[in-house]
Design brief:
It is built from ten helices and nine strands. The protein is of the alpha/beta class. It has one domain: Spore Coat Polysaccharide Biosynthesis Protein SpsA, Chain A. α1 links the parallel β1 and β2.
Length: 262
């Protein structure tokens, strides 16, 4: 089993970001799998609209589709979109840095911090620039990494759409494995393309609020969920001062299900 698979979705053909990403991440340790939701005519795509019956999947449905193709085949899954680039603070190879970190630390989940959008957090940046991982609680949906055991429990995505649909995944990673959920050192990402999704109805605030309420209603402790979603902070002063731990224990279905109402 390979250590990692990068799964990506997007619509462009032969974009410089895609070509660079494929060159960087398609290695002996990592596979690169791309879903082009817009056109079948993409030489770099593993899957295209013909593989989903010609449908225009919502963003979260595309992520579920990609997960279904890689589950149990890799130790970790790196979820990304074609509009972001992962970089190393010292301009070294980000692939090598991430693979090395995964092998040494065996985290439950990661997020490679996106530095130029809403989730920019100086506390995270300062720690990762000194070569230390930083514990996190929330982040952008791109460039998140899930270990296979937790990914199996977090999919399929509960309620489909675009914005806010993976907040529940982040909340559960933080709740189950706080000290094993982090941003890795020396890596950050940049969002390089600003463009509207194909589906726009699921980006409005009413849609998002409905998703968040539905998930909260399934939890035994909805109070902590409500506190979580009202605080946009990626980390906190307390969390960023805690030293992360290596070798996250495997998450069992029994442990996971205790968080939910029967």
């Amino acid at each position: 089993m390979k250590k990692l698979c990068l799964v990506e979705q997007g619509k462009y053909v032969n974009h410089d970001i895609t070509l660079g990403k494929k060159k960087t991440w398609e290695t002996d340790d990592c596979d690169y799998i791309r879903y082009n939701w817009f056109t079948d005519d993409d030489p770099n795509a593993t899957y295209t609209p013909k593989d989903v019956g010609g449908e225009r999947l919502r963003w979260s449905e595309g992520r579920d589709f990609l997960f279904s193709k890689v589950v149990d085949k890799y130790d970790y899954i790196l979820y990304t979109d074609e509009d972001t680039v992962i970089k190393h603070v010292d301009n070294r190879d980000p692939h090598d840095e991430l693979i090395s970190f995964l092998k040494e630390w065996n985290p439950l989940a990661l997020n490679i911090h996106t530095s130029n959008i809403w989730c920019h957090d100086e506390r995270v940046i300062k720690r990762i620039q000194t070569g230390r991982p930083c514990l996190i609680r929330k982040h952008d949906a791109c460039n998140s990494v899930l270990r296979n055991d937790i990914a199996r429990l977090l999919h399929p995505i509960k309620y489909h759409g675009s914005d806010s649909v993976t907040h529940y995944q982040q909340y559960l990673c933080h709740t189950i494995g706080k000290e094993y959920y982090m941003s890795p050192p020396n890596l950050f990402s940049v969002n390089c393309i600003e463009e509207q999704h194909y589906h726009v109805d699921d980006r409005n605030i009413v849609w998002q609020q409905e998703i968040l309420k539905k998930f909260g209603d399934t939890l035994v402790d909805s109070t902590s969920w409500n506190e979580y979603i009202t605080n946009r902070s990626v980390t906190t002063d307390e969390l960023s001062s805690i030293e992360p731990k290596k070798n996250a224990p495997e998450v069992t279905e029994e442990e996971f299900n205790k968080l939910f109402k029967l």
